Amino acid sequence: EKRGAMPGSPEAKKAHWSYLPPVAAPIPAVTVKTWPLSPIDSFVLSALEARGLTPSPDADQIVLLRRLSFALTGLPPSPEVAAGFSLDRLGEVVDEMLASDDFGVRWGRHWLDVVRFAESNGKEANITYPHAWRYRDYVIDAFNDDLSFDRFLQEQLAGDLMPAADDHERARRLIATGFLAMGPKGLTEGNPLQFAADVADEQIDAFSRGMLASSFACARCHDHKSDPVSMADYYALAGIFKSTATRFGTWIDSESNQGSPLVRLPPLPGQIIPNPSVSKKELEDLHAKLAALNAEEEAGKQGMEKAKAEGRDVQMDFNEMLREALRIYWSRGPIVGKLETVDEEGNALPLCMGTVEGEKMIDSPRYERGEIAHPAETVPRGIPAMFKIGTEGAVPRDQSGRLQLALWVTDPRNPLTARVMVNRIWGHLFAEGIVETVDNFGPTGSSPSHPELLDYLALRFQESGWSVKALIREIVLSRTYRQASTSRRECFEKDPDNRLLWRLPKRRLDAEVIRDAMLAVSGELDLSPRPGSLV
Predict the structure, then answer these.
(1) Which letter does DSSP use for residue 432 in this model?
(2) Are strands 244-247 and 382-383 parallel, antiparallel or unpaired?
(3) CA–CA dist 260, 489 (Å, integer)
(4) Is 195 helix (H, G, I), strand (E, B) or coil?
(5) pLDDT of amino acid 62
(6) Are 250 and 244 a contacting pair, CB within 8 Å?
(7) What is the dihedral of CA 419, 422, 428, 430, to 10 degrees?
(8) Closest CA to 153 of 372, 410, 350, 402
(9) SS3 category, 348
(10) What is the pLDDT of residue 197?
């Protein structure tokens, strides 16, 4: 805490290590000068020597090869690669793994886990998302193409608002906004105001935890207890997402009270369009059914008005009228949903989950205790003034603010973004992040085991053009990553959790890797990309 700041005050909260800019510390001097192969090793060895510990010997080269192959591609090395492997070829083999399509599948999956990717809604109405696969493919391609991580985040928050050189880039950026359309939604909620508040809350939680390792959503009901986020900050962000049309592609029926169209993509050669076209006769039938249902609804309304005018007690017929209204309501939803997937001629449209700007820009009220029944003052849309950098503050009145939010998240002066992704990458390679709580960099999270190393890597990440592949390459070629995983009693007694990395942590293979490894060695693994989705 800053000197003189009261504990829990906004000033004290902002003085937490993760909210301060990364500092380029000098590479530490070490006693065993022959061990480090990179600055990473010097930071690790310096911490070990300070505790009277020594690093482990290098792992057997085949063990190292398998470690690299599972980590970078999710697959075991082939017998041919294993037979020709030597430490002299380590850099070359790492480059081959980073260049393989399997890298994007493996590391894209890590990001899909962060952003709650699923092909169905979950919750009470577990309706499928048949177009979610486009976002899945976008993420895999982004990792394989080594799309700069700042641009990767910008496209997911505001790809629809960014200029595009051609239709291919336009389609890719529209698909990227599927990040905001994913996630569980209370589709059974009948109150549109409550539904909009809950969708915005889920989006705030997903972007703040995933990109900033911060729990902004905790400020929905009260000022954050530990992070420097107030209710005013929360509702300034809520206005940004309420001014956004989130298109997730469900229709109204007996399981769902919330319907949503999808985002229309520009047509491209060879584009997969899983939703079928309809014939002219089918199209006419759909429009006829919709017109008949609309006519029934209008007749019901007129009948009710006539009964009231005649002085009849319409409450006597309430249950029957409600049944009829629901029948029409639920019957119309699938028809409307189907018509939204085809053009005026019945041809299937290329569609994706995603976002566009809302028809109306909305400043959200601050809701007391987070309850929509208790609105207080209106909070203008804006970016939280957490770090005193130029991209914070109010957003243009005629824009949602998503583009400004994307630029703030990826501002090089934002102290969280680079650190958070570096820590996620480190965690996938070492089984544990430098900060153990990978989704929580706030005061209730863990402190970094090697703070200077974390800052060094965060700055390197930005200097490399936010290249994920370059960062991974630097880490896996370090001496630290080459260590054997054998336990040593003298080190265990001083550092039982291995936070100082005196050996490479042992880790379980995950279920997907075990399955794919069995299929790979049996020759039955199909590595070709899945076109579309089983859903």
Answers:
(1) S
(2) unpaired
(3) 59
(4) helix
(5) 95
(6) no
(7) -90
(8) 410
(9) strand
(10) 94
